[in-house]
Structures are given as C-alpha cells and as structure tokens.
C-alpha cells in the first residue's frame, strides 16, 4: 500500500519539506534541525521540543517571511539534503546482512519512550523500546514497531505541600503529536477491527517515523465506537484488569491485523513482554487461514520466528486474567478460529496459574513461551532469575536447562549524549560512530584530562542552571514558609559533588537507602570542605502507597532547614528530565534489592557523558563493574533464590555510606596542582572507554539481529506448510509412545579412575535417531554441573526398539549422576518446542 503524504496546513512551496523533517522523530536525537524549529517558534520549541507542534502552530505570516529569508532557506536546504542523504545511505544492515531479514521485524510493545513530546510511556520498558527502535534505525534494520496511541498516557506528576504525589492526566491532542494518520492511496484513514463481546471495536491507525523505521499506533477513539470502547486507548497502566485485557487485545490482534492490511507480513515477530502475546496467536491464525492448515501446524510453522523478551523479575509481574474475563472477551475472536477457550487455556495456563478459588488463569507470559521459538531475559542475572520463575512451568527440567537466553539491554547513545560529550567523542572517533560497531577498545585514550574535566564542568553548570529553572516553576516550592533561596536551588553549586537518583519510586528500588541514617547523610551534605548535593526525581505508580510514602519522606527531608537546599526533588520525571540529569551528575546512584533489577538502563545513560556509577551489584552493573570504572555495593553477590526479603537493607546502606565517605568523596575532591582530580578523571576515562559501546543499544540490536533474528529466520524458512505438518505428525507420534518409554539396568563400572555408566533404554517404537540420552550431575561439593551425552553402543538383544547407552565420567558418589532421555531434532529448538523428558528415578 502506498501511503498518502500528510499536509494538514498551508506552507509556502519553498518550505514544504518541513513536513518531512517535522514528522521524522529523528530530530529527537539528531539535533541537526533544532535551529530551524527554534527560528520558527522559539517559545513553543523550548517548552515542548515538538517540531510537529512548532510547524503547526507557527503563524502563516512568519512562514512566508522565512521562505524569503536567505539564511533560513540555506539552513533548510542543508537539512533537506542531509535528510535525503540519510534516507539513502548504506547502513550496517545493508552492508552486513544483505536483506536476510526479508520483510523485516515486527516489534510489539505496550509503551514507547521516544521523546518527551510523545508521551506514550511510563518508564524503563518504554524507554528501552524507544532506544531499540532508534538504534534499529541507525543500523538500518527493517523494524516496524507496533503500539497504542494513548490520549492521556501515563500520569503527570506534581508534588503537594506535604510531599504527597498529585496525579494529573492532561489530554494529548493526537493531531499535535509528531505522528500522522495512516491514510491509504485513496486518502482513506486505515482502520482495523477487533471483535469484542457483541460488537466490534474500530481502530484508527497512526504512523510515526523513526528514521528508517516506522512506529504504527492504534487508537480506539473513533466516534463510531461505543463510548466505553473509545477510552480503551486512553491511559497507560490504569490498573483495571478489564481495560488491560482490552488493551492487550487491541495491541496484539489489532496490531497484527494492521500489519497484514498494510501488506507488511513481517518475517520476525518480536514481543517486548508477554502483554503482546495475542499478536503471536493472531499471526498463527492468519497463517492457518492462508495455508489451510490446523492450528498446531500453524503454531509450529510460525513460532520459529517469534521471539519473546521478558523484563519481569517476579512471577507476580506476569499478567494473568481470570477465565470468565477471557471467555467473555476472547470468545468472539476464538469462535472465528479453530480454537476453543479450553484449548487456549491449555496453551497459556500452567497448573500453578490458579486464582484463590482454584479457577485457572490465563498467563500471558506462559502463552508467549508456548508460541515462541526463542526467549530471552535482559541481563545475565536476569536470565537466571527468569529461569527460576519459569521453573514451575517446566516441571521436569532443572533450572539451568530452562530455555531462556539473555541479551543485556543498552541505551541509544546519540539520544543521551550532551552537546559537550558529542563534541569530545567526535574529536576522538569522528561522526557516525554510533551507527556501526566500535572497533577501538580504548577510544578516549588520546583525549586529555583537561578536555574531559572541561566537559564535566560545562555539563554541571548546565545542570545547575536547569535545576534552578525547574525548581522555580514547581509552584509548591514557592509556598509560604519556604525559604525561596533553598527552594529554588540557589544554593546548588556546580563544583560540588552531585549525586543523582531518579527512577520509579517503589520499594524494591530502595530509594530510602540513604535515609536509613539521616545523621550520616546530613553530615555528608553539610561538610564544609567536601560537601555533596543530591538530585532526585521519580514517580510512584498511583496505586503504590509505599512508593508514594518514599517520595514524601525525601521531599520532607529536603525541606529541613539544616539540609540547606542541598537535596532537591524534581517533579514529573520523564525523558526530558532524565536527559538533563544524566548529562550533569557526577555519580548516578542505583540501589535495587539484588536480584530484583532485571537490567536497569538509567546508569548506562551517564556513561557517554562521563558520569560514574555507584550501584548495587545487580542487573547490568553485575556485568559491567570493575574497580576502575565505578563502585559496587556488595560486589560479587551471587544469584540468590528469589525472596523478597529486606535482610540486606541495613548492611547495604552501611556499605553505601562507607563507599561514599572512604572512596567516592575523597577521590572527587582530591585535586592535584592543576586543580583537577586525577584519579577521578582516570575513572571517567576508563568508564567511557570500557562501557559506553558495550552498553549501547547499537550493540543490543546487533546482538538481536545476529544471534536471534538471522538464525531464527533461517530455521523458520525450513518450516513450509508441508514440513510443519510433518513435524506436528511426528510430535504426535512420539507423544503417543512417550508414556511407555523406560530405562532399565543401570550399571556403573570403574575404568581408569573414571566411572563407566551403562544403561538400557526401551524406546517403545520411537526412532533412536529422535532421542538423546544424557547423564546429568547437578552442582555439588563434588564439582560443577555436568551434562554428558551417552553414546549408543548396541541394540538390546531380544527386544525391538531397545538400546544400550554408555558414558565415561569423572567419579562422583553413587546417585549423583542420573540418566535422562530427551528429544533430539535439529529442526526444533529444544527443549522449548518439546519439553518431553524421562529421568531414571
Ligand atoms: C531510563 C529511564 C527509565 C529507566 O531507568 P531504570 O534504570 O530502569 O530505572 C525510566 N524512566 C525514564 C524517564 C528514563 O529515562
């Protein structure tokens, strides 16, 4: 389908290209066209950072005037040429991957954080999705993202006089967001329909351009829908399960239908969190229809190219819906397919998914697992955590074998670097450095201490200036009884060690770790020679009372006269606030309870700008930390069983204070003859050198392409309709024999200081080519975990389909090694696609 150009207002012919520029969200990180928007309407641009709004609100006279002004025209043409060159430029993908992804990747997520001017996100998940999309554009990977266009989005935050959070829901006029209605060649608005009980909901489609990638957004606010349905896409994370289910249906079912309507038919379907699992189901349904096959065949054919990324650290984080809600809402959709509600539950409800009265619940993550060809967590620690929380779903598999891999998250560096650091990196590595792999392992070695320190000072000056502006506009801080000098940040100082803490305020993130010893904190804040100052920001979910209480505590602490304005709380944490904080702070603090931080990304944003991390050894920091690059609380902590205990809060808090007092503060203030802190700058250089590129979204997206999309695509290509059908038949055949398969006669012989295990296996008609016999020892005081393949040595005399297997292993006490049989099939990803396993008891 060719799409019509969107030009809602009159613009002089000489400047029509502004539509193209304003509708490409590339301006949110590229900044080349900033000067155009500022010239058009400085006030609107500064207040909103929304180029589309600027273009639509600037007076016609002003546009006419500028269309005749040579300097503006020159800049405009330069930007148009630059944009044109960008659109046609070769990319990492075009050079390295030769279009191997064919029709590209569909990426599904409930939220997208691309710019503060497009408020379709609440926090980490959305920002990650935004950064992923921008990096995919930089690399030229053909990604179409799918999401929802929320009219109100997530709440906006103000803080009341006593520190209580106030939640505001301003309406976003979608025509003023940097998006266009998706219109077909007849200029008709593209719509798709999703069945709801007794009615259809009509969805309008919008498109956002993110450089080389598209973001498709669905919106139910069609006047022809029932009033209640028009609000399905109003708020993000409202907390109402019924609305949530409606949103997930709109996103998954509506999203896949939209892709089909547009003829995109992507090669890979990547879902970010289980919320979007209905997309995979709809994908299988449409494949079944196209190929006239049953659902099992469709599932097998499509799942090879479905990727499920989980970001959750606790099983309670998985969305689960009660049966009556599923029956009511999904009934009409399933009725048109080859599937009953019972069959859906057998696919997406494990025995542990029960409500209080024992009724089954549909678990969206489990549904996603059963429809995916690969699954990944978002850090090395999170891989283990995910294996643990999925263990009950794979009842006969040990944790280590649960088929979850990991890709550590990364951030879109060009979105987070400051103008000063951009300049520094350009000197060191040239332009376009983030659009391809970074070859140089120590790119900043040629940059002097002086340059690094000058960059830091400039960034901090800007931060202090920004904080003062923000604080002055936070109306409650100007209330009676407040000291305006402290409330407006006049005592903040750009040479003082500045610590930043900004994230969702919720218990496990422990925003109060510093408040556990107020006296100790106070003495750090008010130290005459070596003071610190603290900048905070963050929202608590409207239903999280603990989180709100944590905000109140900090807010009240910051108002104490003896704190002397050295602690400030910035309201309404969003991408705009984050950008300012991560560019200026010296130390970024993160204190989640280990191992609860799936990954964490905010600390990665400071790397490019020369900030340093002081963080719990958890998530990404457990992979990144070493002594040269920053500080870790409880370094080397090993993965512990998941239990939400606060046992470590007290010692972690003490360790944090010790680090600050004995290491961080002295290193920062220990300046040499030249007035610069040598050790600190060495750390900055090490952190920038070692961590910036590895924790970038460019690395992350390349890893998704190389380690997931490409091999998944190759596997998926083998599954044409006929092969998929055969594989399903074979699986059914194996399943019919599996219950009668058995071991017999395990013998262990000594052989050259080793043990020879010999066992007979009765396969009950299953081909010996289709099974793998293994000998497994779990980790113990006798050694690491071991898994050995046992070799078939002979057919067992006198019985058909029985074989003897053996294996030579290092000695362990009796009972430590256990044989098992599992399926062997290169055409499948195992054990995910067939978890059949038989252990010798
Ligand atoms: C980066 C970012 C987050 C996520 O940060 P975490 O370290 O995962 O807490 C959340 N909100 C905003 C606005 C961000 O910019």
UniProtKB/TrEMBL annotation:
Keyword terms of this UniProt record: Allosteric enzyme
Phosphoprotein as UniProt keyword: no
Lipid metabolism found in the keyword field: no
Reactions accelerated catalytically: [(1->4)-alpha-D-glucosyl](n) + phosphate = [(1->4)-alpha-D-glucosyl](n-1) + alpha-D-glucose 1-phosphate
Alphabetical list of Pfam families matching this protein: DUF3417 (PF11897), Phosphorylase (PF00343)
Domain DUF3417: 11-118
Recorded superkingdom: Bacteria
InterPro entries assigned: Agluc_phsphrylas, Glyco_trans_35, Glycogen/Maltodextrin_Phosph, Glycogen_phosphorylase_DUF3417
Family membership noted in the UniProt record: Belongs to the glycogen phosphorylase family.
Name of the protein this chain belongs to: Alpha-glucan family phosphorylase
Species, as recorded: Marinobacter koreensis
